Fold this sequence. Notes:
Layout: H1 3-10, H2 22-32, E1 39-43, H3 49-58, E2 61-66, H4 69-82, E3 88-92, E4 106-112, H5 121-130, E5 132-145, H6 151-157, H7 167-176, E6 179-186, H8 189-209, H9 216-237, E7 238-247
Parallel strand pairs: 1-2, 1-4, 2-3, 4-5
Antiparallel strand pairs: 5-7, 6-7
Helix pairs in contact: 2-3, 8-9
The structure holds S-adenosylmethionine.
Amino acid sequence: MDKWKYYNITHKLHVLCNPLSEAKFEKFCQLLRLKPRGQVLDIACGKGELLVRLAELYRISGVGVDLSPYCIRDCKEKHRKRLRQSSITFIEMDASRYKPKPGEVFDLVSCIGASWIYKGYLGTLKALKGITKPGGLIAVGEPFWMKEPCDEYLTVADLSRDDLGTHRENIQVGEGEGMNCLYTLVSNHDDWDHYETLQWLAVDEHIQANPDDPDNEELANRSQQNKETYIRWGRETLGWAIYLFRKT
Ligand SMILES: C[S@@+](CC[C@H](N)C(=O)[O-])C[C@H]1O[C@@H](n2cnc3c(N)ncnc32)[C@H](O)[C@@H]1O
């Protein structure tokens, strides 16, 4: 089945497409204290909640880039409903090919939960640093190992041990790039359960409402496999945090 359709169905009920609670997200946005008309770039912006919320709080301008046509449609609708002025542009494209205009640098650049775009966490930090103003902020959402993953989990989840670091390593990697880690927001079991189990609910609702969808069997199988992987291993093994750095 089309991957963007799959993602749209599984994340239909999510406001944030990552394991961060909406309360923690709001605290994070409040803490950023951006200047009015600050320039923000959100790579893999999902449903655009970060940019729209920052525009509501600080009247920033910005750009959101995402490859999913469903996400960009949701972003534009959210922008129309919640922001009077057109301060944010949403672009549907592969973010690895996104280039800011010549000389354009941002006050805040974020990539929350999509570091594969830059071939991993370190690549993401380097790429974002290159388009952030000196003294500007970089926010990256990244998983981390809470404990050593077992081989069975790595195989089923199609991960390798070296794909991720520990929480400490994620901070150290950014600081090794000459940035100062200012703040971290770590998801707990409750946050993760909300993120994962909302997908179970959304899949069930889709199948109930669309019994003739030819993709239902694949959808149900994939959802069942993800559910099992999460409750058997992921819940105890995988952490998630947003790391906020200042480019010095
Ligand atoms: C885990 S979600 C995070 C979305 C958003 N940052 C959030 O936290 O709500 C990952 C996002 O990456 C987007 N994505 C995946 N590959 C991409 C690519 N090559 N370029 C741009 N966006 C991409 C997906 O469409 C999805 O919205």
